[in-house]
Amino acid sequence: MNIKKLTITLSGEILVDISFKLHSSLALVGQSGSGKSLTLKALLGMLPQEMQLELETESDFKLEVGESIAFIPQNPFTALSPLTKIKKQFFIETSRVTELFEEVGLSLDLLERFPPELSGGQLQRVVIAMALSKRPKLLLLDEPTTALDPDTRIMIIELLKKLQDKEQFRMLFVTHDIASAKNLCEDICVLKSGKVVEYGKMSQVIQAPKDQYTKTLIEANFANRDFRK
To answer: Domain range holding 108?
Structure first.
């Protein structure tokens, strides 16, 4: 998948002007205001009406939200109705729900519960199951591990890796958490002020960042110097 051109403007001012390739899994990282959230909204068709989008893509599938594209939000509560049982929020055959719950490691009895009765990690796995229900080609993730405790964060990252191996979807992981992205994504694209300042293999960029901005981001994400191992 090749995003040949993604330009977002507002009243003639260019907010984002980037391009990148998504081979398997790509982390889109940057500080607040870097343009990563706008990029995600553009791909989801959720930009404010006053913003203009110019998008040129090259892909082996049609970019269609709800079909070939699925989305996992930062807060799973935003994707679920708190007053509706989990089972009522799936609009697919029961056999597929059962299959998905097994894949994400959830007990089927949770289908009879309401979202507020589940933990954050359980809710995130429910949302992952929902996102995969139509076997998407592209999974967009918006900071899906930010609100989780460290152990649950690791579990969700490992789960996403396992699911990608099985379901064969591509991932675009929008985050400021390079530590999590390092364990999930093959490639990294660093944004600053709506521009790409560094792009390449995750391992290579982590080992030897070329841009000072990237270096600062990496060092701010790790408590010690072991991140290059």
So the answer is: 2-228
Strand ranges for the chain from DSSP E: 2-10, 13-21, 25-29, 51-58, 69-72, 138-142, 170-175, 187-192, 195-201
Q: Do 22 and 3 touch, CB atoms closer than 8 A?
A: yes
Query: How far apart, in Å, are the Cα atoms of 31 and each of 2, 144, 175, 198?
Result: 24, 16, 9, 14
CATH number of the domain encompassing residue 123: 3.40.50.300
Count the neighbouring beta carbons within 10 Å of the beta carbon of residue 192: 17
Residues ≥6 apart with Cβ < 8 Å to 132: 70, 100, 103, 139, 163, 167, 169
Question: Whole-prediction pTM value?
Answer: 0.90
Return the structure tokens found at 36: 């990563």
Chain segment 173-227, per-residue pLDDT in tens: 999 888 888 989 999 999 999 999 999 999 999 999 999 999 999 888 775 445 4
